[in-house]
Amino acid sequence: MLTVRSALNLFCVLVCASTAVEARQSEEAIARGIVIGQAYVSGSVVVAGFFEDNARSWPQSITLARLFASGGQHPSADFVRVLSQEHPESFSGGGDIDVEQNVFAAIDHIFLDRPVALYRSRVTIAESTGVIGWSGTSLGVRDVSYQNRGQLRPTTPRERDEVAADKRKLPKDIKCTTVPQWIDAAKILLTATVSLTNATIRLSSYQDPGCLGHLSTIYVLDVMMPGREPRRFEFRHYQGVL
Fold first, then answer.
1. Of 91, 139, 147, 238, which sits most exposed with the smallest number of CB within 10 A?
2. Enclosing domain of residue 198
3. Could you list the mean pLDDT of each consecutive 10-residue stretch along the chain, which spans 242 residues?
4. Which residues lie below 8 Å from residue 234, measured CB to CB, with a gap of 6+?
């Protein structure tokens, strides 16, 4: 029979365990467990992280969701090796890739300036597609939704101040050949819930050619905890001179 003291002890254990999980899954810990990249018809999956950390450890397996198409299954992929300074498009397995759906699209085959990792999908990949992935063991992501796709990402007051300050910093003595873009131009790709926490994530993207046509695509990962301002993490992929 469960006594009052036993019940209280059990309650304490459950609360402490829940608190420990919450502590482990901080905004930064969640962001470190998420990757972004490209799945190719060859079965190769090439991903990068939201931290420029050469010493990072890669999950042994990741679960994937498409960036540019809703629905479908969430296949898994297994770690193969690190591909530092290698060009991901060489793992496409041949064939043309839709540039609009290629996370690693580049002009003149520019190399990435951060480590990337090669994974091998456990299932057949019908077409090359951009993907978001998460650790298959330490980080559960569920309820992936594309309902808000295409909507402008909400900006915080701090971000609006940052954008205004950046616009004031544009050089006055140079005539821009392209129109710069900032975080307020980002549009939502998808949202999801992080299991075992109260956190949700939101992935958005925008392109910034800068003032002189140096094009970059910026993927914005927001990790959102109830009652807190979203923590923003970015993966910037420089595509080259227009």
1. 147
2. 157-241
3. 48 40 72 93 92 83 90 88 66 50 78 83 91 85 94 97 94 89 98 92 97 94 95 93 90
4. 50, 218, 219, 220, 221
